[in-house]
Amino acid sequence: MKKTVPEIAGRKQLARVPDKNPPQKIAMVTAYDYPTALLADRAGMDVILVGDSLAMVVLGYESTVSVTMEEMLHHAKAVRRGTKEAVLVGDLPFGSYQEGPQQAVHNAVRFLKEAGMDAVKLEGGATHAETVRALVQNGIPVMGHIGLLPQLVSATGGFKVQGRDTKTAQRLIDDAKALEEAGCFSIVLEAIPDRLAGLITRSINIPTIGIGAGPECDGQVLVMHDLIGLFDRFTPRFVKKYADGATLIGDALTQYRHEVQAGEFPGPEHSFTIKDEVIEGLYGDK
Fold first, then answer.
1. What is the dotted CATH code of the domain comprising 5-243?
2. pLDDT digit string (tens) for 45-60?
3. Most buried of the four, 186, 211, 255, 256, by CB within 10 Å?
4. Among all residues, which ones are annotated catalytic?
5. Binning pLDDT at 50, 70 and 90, where does residue 15 land?
6. Domain coordinates in residue numbering, the chain
């Protein structure tokens, strides 16, 4: 059965209120094409994010900044075709919403109309509250994203944990509240100390989805290629590899090359046959 945005919004743990039967935490993963979306959906993921991490793990760019709206839409369409049940979220890339609400609405509509996404995600806190409000008022569900903002790493000094001093920690709390007030149905918390993430989670009434933000969030998200070990340029501390995909695939390719070069593949079981009389009719008796 197809999951919905309201259902995900209702999966709030409300840790500050004891509950013997809390809702199940939200499991979210990225996907960028038909086969990975198909696998993620079959695994029962609640949310699939077509993340702008596409830039680095699929397209080979140095950062997420380079990926374009057209590239995001191209991959989002493929993910849509591989998904039946999960909520689909399209990640608004850098340059697709920075000019203001009008630009954001235009590009978000494309995600929903052209690529079949259920919602969009954008990076930034209180400074983007007006944009979030405009999107929501136009019927576009929005997932927020605060803490480490990959689209702004060049301006903020790299991939660093956010909120380790009182001033920045308070700003993150304020950002979360501003996004909730603007209408976000959930917020990604990235690279935030675990207890601060727990405090943020308890201070708002919409789900938080952590990535490097500890266990107190209402859900978790990981990049597919990190999770299955396919991206080895670097591995963030918060990533848990559930498979060594790079080694597995590399071994398979090496074995294939060896068998081809040695004349071991293809064998009779991989080949098609033809009747003797057909061959004889082509070449005649010798």
1. 3.20.20.60
2. 999 999 999 999 999 9
3. 186
4. 190
5. very low
6. 5-243, 248-283
